[in-house]
Amino acid sequence: METITVTSDHAQLNWRETIAAAFSDKNEVVIEQQGKPVATLVNYELFQKIKRELLILQGLKNAEKNRQERLEKPLSTVTLSDLAAKLNLADPQETISTRTRPI
Questions:
Q1: Which of 57 and 83 is assigned the larger pLDDT?
Q2: Domains in the chain: how many in total?
Q3: Rounded CA separation 2/31 (Å)
Q4: Cα(95)–Cα(103) distance, rounded to whole angstroms?
Q5: Quick check: is 51 in a domain?
Q6: Helix spans in 1-103 (H)
Q7: Is residue 8 part of a domain?
Q8: Residues near 81 by beta carbon (within 8 Å), at least 6 away in sequence
Q9: What whole-number distance in Å separates Cα of residue 93 and Cα of residue 50?
Q10: What average pLDDT does the chain have?
């Protein structure tokens, strides 16, 4: 993937060209303002892929955080059966879901 860097003024004056460059699977366009990068244009399909991967990574990070908390404080973890007992409910494995017919 090639990175194309343009000023915000250039991007504004040549918007169609800038969009076309980002539309290509081979380019990303970095837009600078006063010499500092402020935005990036990428192909929408690539953006969706990056977004999915980011969500997966965030989920893994949260799962690892929860695992660490359980390791540090094992008594804070409550099983479903323990919770049912505390609430005076039947064992969750014995609970049968039934549907009633509408009146």
A1: 57
A2: 2
A3: 14
A4: 24
A5: yes
A6: 8-13, 15-23, 44-72, 80-86
A7: yes
A8: 91, 92, 93
A9: 40
A10: 83
Phi, psi (deg, nearest 5) at residue 6 = -135, 160
Examine the domain organization and report whether 51 and 34 are in the same domain.
no
Cα angle: 32, vertex 36, 40; to 5 degrees = 45
pTM: predicted TM-score of the whole model, two decimal places: 0.55
The pLDDT tens digits of the residues spanning 73-95 come to 777 667 778 778 888 776 555 55
Residues sharing a CB contact under 8 Å with residue 43, sequence separation 6 or more, in sequence order: 22, 23, 24, 25, 27
Mean of pLDDT values over 29-34:
95
Q: Are residues 51 and 82 in the same domain?
A: yes
Q: Domain check: are 58 and 69 in the same one? A: yes
Residue pLDDT, tens place only, 17-28: 999 888 876 789
User: What domain range is 15 assigned to?
Assistant: 2-42
d(CA 3, CA 24): 11
